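Late entry, written up from scratch paper. The run itself happened at the end of the previous shift, but nothing got recorded in the book at the time, so transcribing now.
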Amino acid sequence: MSRAHKVEGWNNCHTLSWELHSHLCHKMDSTSLLPTVLDADLTVLHIECLPKDMLVKFQGKNNSECQFDYHILQREIQYVPKVRSNMAVDDFCLVEERVTGEWQRGRVVGKQNEVYTVLLIDRGEELSVDGTRVASACRKLFELPPRVISGIFANILPLGEKWSPRALNYFRSLVGIQLKGNMQTILPLQMFLLEAPKVISGVLELQLGRFIDKDTFRLIVEILKENPQPMPDLLQHKRPEFSLSTNNGTSLDVHSVLDNFQPSLPVGSLDSVKVSCALSPSKFYCQLLKRIPELEDLTECMNLHYNTVSHETGPTCDNFGLLCVAKGTNGWWQRGVLQELLPDNQVRIWFMDYGSSEAIPSVHVKKLKQDFIFAPLFSFPCSLTCLHSPDQEERKWQLTIFKQALLGHIVYAHIDWFSENEHLYYVTLQSPESAVNSQCLLQGTQICCPAFESNFTNALSKAGTYGTDSFAVDSFIGNVEQSVGGLNVKDKLKASFPIRTVKMEVESMYVAFVVNVLDPSNFWVRINKHQNKFQDIMKTINRFYNASENDDLTLRNPEPGLFCCARYSKDRCFYRAIITEMSDYQINVYLLDYGSTDSIPVFDVKVLLPEFCSWI
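Output as recorded:
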């Protein structure tokens, strides 16, 4: 709309008769004024991010409209007849400032008796006024979008349960920065979820947080804000979508393409899982925790390949459901299914190993190399069984665990049954504690462990004690029983003595392997005499902890000083270690046999059995 037409519209509003004006100036809530422009261009004015809050709020000045238009609008507002009315929270209104006597556009954000709290949508400030200073608003006065946009940065969450000090400093540094992005949805009180690529890439590159797909993030916001109202998908208004079809005009069923890749999970099984994507408690996707390292390896291989290949124009993916590989917002190349064609050379891709979908530029879609096709799916669709139960307490408990899973916690899923018609696994979620109790892992269940060769025992038992540079410890745990059932609170494998290592004689010569180097004056070696025997015990340890029946040996209640078996982040192998520090979901460990350190997720820290501990 041109400026002349806008002025004409406002002047017409000014010259309306009192009766017609009263008819048009009805109360408007946020749902009646969905924005018409979804491409946001703003300058950040304020950031609200507290350590305890997982959502990052912002206020920004709208740069997409001519500032002169707001000046004209402000003049017209002063002359419009004012109709006093009983306003409700979330209604748009006109409000009079006490000091200047000027009327401003506003939105009611609070009301107590006859005192209103009104947010000035063109300034981002709040006023507390009585009912005589609040009036209904003519719809035409709100054709210009708010000059100040309030919202939440979408698709990012902290690595743990709260933002780190580095992350807080990063968000504060955004004040004064110009940002562009898309408004995904509208929340109560006219707040928006803003997908800002610059913010997302900054958080990921600096490793300050993690990326969450659009659908899961919206569900998390609904739960954290306890908002029962459905949030409209604004991007659907912006981009009409066109489904892909086969040559005869019939759409392909995605399930027919993926049936051969879907893993079969036995009914009655119980596995630790990670929720990778969620639309609702009745439709979400899980990944088996034990298969995540395999997915990480596949992702690494695909990224090495597609980031290094030349930018050749590959075969066009022109059939609905065709397998492809696409580069998502998180910067990773992932296997996907081409779902829909969108305007502006974009396509919607469903990422089959995660269950999420994204609209991405078509240049970021490639033909899936045959080497990557035959790996099985890493995600499977689920629904909570309790949603069909009349037991309200059970539903409440299940939704509590589901919320924890959405926020990144590891949970267990019991497969109750599989619906072939819906292609859904109906599951009951359990916390790690309740899952362990249900499997009787802490009630005397015997765990089989391969025996060591006697000569290997003798070889390591002759090792001497190193001096003052080793980790300090309390008492040796040689009397811990050979089952998890014997590991009670007092039997924790907690180091409190100088850790034994090979004693090297002064002025002697050894053939050795360098295993870790900090600098020329600080490095670790392994004597050739023990190399083969050490490799044998490493093979035994990895064979044991990689066995599927031992997946549930995650160390409960980890704390600094405890011995453990840790999966090293670089090669995904298990090594004997000691916990040195804990922060959020990460645990810092010292690898006893290498002298190196690593920071790994909680689920990669396992109970170190006495059979393996006795050689430390």
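The domain at 3-224 is CATH 2.30.30.140 (SH3 type barrels.).
(Scratch paper discarded after transcription.)
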